[in-house]
Design goal:
The complex is a heterodimer of chains A (113) and B (116).
Chain A (H helix, E strand, L loop, with lengths): L3 E4 L2 E4 L4 E8 L5 E7 L6 E7 L2 E5 L6 E7 L2 E7 L7 E8 L8 E2 L3 E5 L1
Chain B lengths: L3 E4 L2 E5 L4 E7 L5 E7 L6 E6 L5 E4 L2 E5 L5 E6 L8 E8 L11 E3 L3 E6 L1
Parallel strand pairs in B: 2-11
Antiparallel strand pairs in B: 1-3, 3-8, 4-5, 4-9, 6-7, 7-8, 9-10, 9-11
The chains are: A mainly beta (113), B mainly beta (116).
């Protein structure tokens, strides 16, 4: 499915680096989400944006900083990450109506050295 | 927070066998979704369920929304090697206040391996 595109697909960074993950959706949705997927754990919701406004922050450390300039684009800025932050970061989008399913990108595989 | 208990955690089956997996919760959900994730890809929506008791098929896949609204089942008939992947259930809670976005709670996933 190419409706939600994430870049880069893979990222290796040191703990002192600053990098950004990008997500773009071409589905006309108005809600976007960041998830963290670690091995043997359920998907963890990190942030929710609804019409560009952040509506949820699930106690995510401040070293993760989201940005949503418009309904089609979502960024996750990374700074001073820890080894336990290594995971697959998934972006999703949906219509802002109850019952509308989320559509996922293929994720960015992040490795922290 | 809300939790979904998905079982089994993993399955090893022979090609041609049928597969069943389920999710249960202590909370009532308005919507149940089933996703499949293959290696190196994001989850892909398989089936969406919107009413208690609803039974929906997508090819060889059939899913049901439990009558109590606290559980859901996914069945795969006559499995084939390309069914390999991780299957996730997800439930959407009734919203409160003015929040209307589709926040989902995910199960832990069922890892399916199909031997030719």
């Amino acid at each position: 499915e190419t409706g939600v595109t994430q870049t880069p697909r893979h990222l290796v960074m040191g703990m002192t680096n600053k990098k950004s993950l990008k997500c773009e959706q071409h589905l006309g949705h108005n809600a976007m989400y960041w998830y963290k997927q670690s091995a043997k754990k359920p998907l963890e919701l990190m942030f929710v944006y609804n019409f560009k406004e952040q509506t949820e922050n699930n106690s995510v450390p401040s070293r993760f900083s989201p940005e949503c300039p418009n309904s089609s684009h979502l960024f996750l800025h990374l700074h001073t990450l820890q080894p336990e932050d290594s995971a697959l970061y998934l972006c999703a989008s949906s219509q802002d109506r109850l019952g509308q399913p989320q559509h996922f990108g293929d994720g960015t595989r992040l490795s922290i050295l | 927070g809300q939790q979904l208990n998905q079982s089994p955690q993993s399955m090893f089956i022979q090609e041609g066998e049928d597969v069943s997996m389920n999710c249960t919760s202590s909370s009532i959900f308005n919507t149940w979704l089933w996703y499949k994730q293959e290696p190196g890809e994001g989850p892909v929506l398989l089936i969406a369920l919107y009413k208690a008791g609803e039974l929906t098929s997508n090819g060889r896949l059939t899913a049901q929304f439990g009558i109590t609204r606290k559980d859901s089942f996914l069945n795969i008939s006559a499995s084939i090697p390309s069914d390999v992947g991780i299957y996730f259930c997800a439930g959407q809670l009734p919203t409160a206040g003015g929040t209307s976005y589709g926040k989902l709670t995910f199960g832990q996933g069922t890892i399916l391996t199909v031997h030719p």
